[in-house]
Amino acid sequence: MDQTPPPAAGTIEVSVWRSTGPGGVAAGDGRFETFAVPRAPSQTVLDVVTHIQRYLDPTLTYRFACRVGVCGSCAMVVNGEPRWTCRTHVDKVSADGRLEIAPLRNLPVIRDLATDMREFFDKWARARGQFTGSRTRHEAFAVVAPESAERVQVDLGIECIGCGVCYSACDVVEWKRDYLGPAAMNRAWTLLNDVRDDRQRERLAAVAGDAGCHACHTHMSCTERCPKHLPLTAAIAGLKRATTRALLRGEL
Amino acid sequence: MNTRAQAYLWFAQRASAALLGFFVLVHLVTVIYAVRNGLSAVEILGRTRGNTPWMLFYLLFVVAVAVHVPIGLRNILAETFSWRGRGLDLIVLGVGLFFLLSGLRAVWAVYAPGAA
Amino acid sequence: MSPSRRLWRNRNHPAYWAFIVHRVSGLALAAFIPLHFWALGQALTGEATLQGFVVWTDNPVVKIAEFGLVVALAAHLAGGARLLMLEFLPWRDWQKSLFAASVAASVGAGLLFALNLG
Lengths: 252, 116, 118
Description:
The complex is a heterotrimer of chains A (252), B (116) and C (118). By secondary structure, chain A is of the alpha+beta class. Helices cover 34% and strands 14% of the residues of chain A.
């Protein structure tokens, strides 16, 4: 299919999305620009992008912070799949010596590889992703047994780093622009299992319906791509069961 | 349509799916059995005419189909054409009624002992 | 939304194929069912009318279509059972094998139908 000759030994051919518009949220217009980047042992995709920006084109725009898979800011679409670029080795994703690096899908592009994450996090708030307790400092600590069923569910979903990979992997997000997406609902699910939280009815109402858990088709692309291997589709299924229970009890 | 109604639709689709799981299994077995010596109207009607248990089975089958299909169609139309709102809901309601009425007509056609 | 030209790779995993099978088979069945109802309705005007239709269906093109519909019905049944289990049962790793089981069940039903036809 690809007629171009293979990249020279010791280098990798990298197609990087470059915005051609004036910048700003609507700058989705652009084209792929190709760079030859030297290979290095244990090189990550983020290393590749950084090499381009430092040595080949200082105007390349991208976002990163910790470089060790904690902060969740460097996710991009690498060869078609959303990934955390700082923990993705080039060896793993580029069998043919080529890489295509694009901004996250389903989010507005600010410039080049940097996306505007506002709608992603706004939806966490819309899914009632905030803890609301009723105890004050005058009361005793809540006791939550680590082996309790609820706490076990919380454990499964709590390690989310908010990178947006699941949101970018999800087709339903593309089809329904108001769909909350996996990360926001995973957050709601962990809070739903927090026995100290006392706004659960509100939360269930927030995650129900066509823009919430009932729109999920169990494609499982979120679960497939989550770099932290969180069971996101299972969390959404949990919300489906919880909302249905509430519905049948007349509490939704 | 409010969130609660949307949740009801989702539940109605799953509940009808659970029923259909049973109906379709029986239907598949019947189909595979019925075609073994070639189909004929005599054979089909011999099984169904005046047979009330089969009639009730197909009656419930049709109702479950008439619930299940329009909800799935509503999802597909909403996702594919970004179509929302009352217009969509009315169209799929019409589809549901069409499936219900034409299905009941078919059940009656193969059951009614009087039809010559 | 993303300019990537390789987004199909993101969808290239079993649960997504299961979704495509479920959607395509569902649409095929939704298109077929009104025809099915109409055909059975022929019996209203008597056995002979229905028999006329049954005779018409006895050609290879219709038989192939019928085979496809039986497979679609079995696939939609098996895929639906898979979805109900994924949504309503506690999550287990074996549920990842459900897609394979669904495929096997629908192919099996199709083969049985085809063998009986002959």
